[in-house]
Write a structure and sequence with these properties.
The protein is of the alpha+beta class and about 200 residues long. It is built from 6 helices and 10 strands, in the order αβαββαββαββαβββα. It binds zinc ion.
Length: about 200
């Protein structure tokens, strides 16, 4: 039964056909070559010890894609050979944002990579102006009074309908989390969104 399931899910026949699973591990070159023990990041999970990541990678079929960081360690670009630029850029944003919605305090998985400043308002399709958002935050962004714009260093500045301003820097394993939106702002987001969906 398990073999049949694998055949059906992968579309390939035979017990030798293993499903291909993509797990993104972000680590520095020094940590990969055991010259450093700086923790690695597993997308969608969080930081893991460098030694654990090296051991896991030794047993896997690994495709290494180079990511480039600025001196502060923030991701600034991604090498993209096999995909066309928009897909590569979306993948870069998802990796930079660690797979988690960019709204401060929202820990839902990214479902959309979208402009902070709207394309129609002159927002560029660039790493600085793109953000990974969950389904609800992406729709709430279109709600009346909700604004976002790119800040320096890859930050996203969100202005909620109550006028509160929240700055969300790109996640960094070695920095404390930014203060989250208040419970009231999240409730407001959901009320606005339900109102919009009902309209
Ligand atoms: Zn969200």
């Amino acid at each position: 039964m398990a073999d049949t399931l694998v055949d059906r899910v992968t579309g390939r026949e035979g017990v030798e056909a293993k499903p291909r699973i993509e797990v993104k591990v972000v680590m520095s070159a020094e940590a990969l070559t055991a010259d450093s023990d700086r923790p690695a990041m597993v997308e969608g999970y969080g930081p893991v010890p460098a030694a654990w990541a090296r051991e896991a990678l030794a047993d896997a079929e690994v495709f290494v894609r180079r990511l480039f960081t600025d001196p502060a360690g923030r991701l600034v670009a991604m090498e993209s050979r096999s995909r066309k630029a928009p897909d590569g850029l979306a993948e870069f944003i998802t990796t930079r944002d660690a797979g988690i919605c960019r709204t401060n305090g929202c820990d839902a998985p990214i479902r959309n990579v979208d402009h902070a400043q709207r394309h129609a308002d002159g927002g560029a399709t660039s790493a600085a102006n793109l953000q990974g958002l969950c389904e609800r935050c992406n729709q709430a962004k279109e709600a009346l009074g909700w604004q976002a714009r790119p800040g320096p260093d890859g930050s996203i500045i969100t202005i909620t309908p109550t006028g509160h301003v929240y700055t969300s820097p790109p996640p960094d394993t070695w920095r404390p989390d930014p203060p989250p939106l208040s419970r009231a702002e999240f409730m407001l987001r959901d009320v606005l969104l339900d109102y919009r969906l009902a309209a």
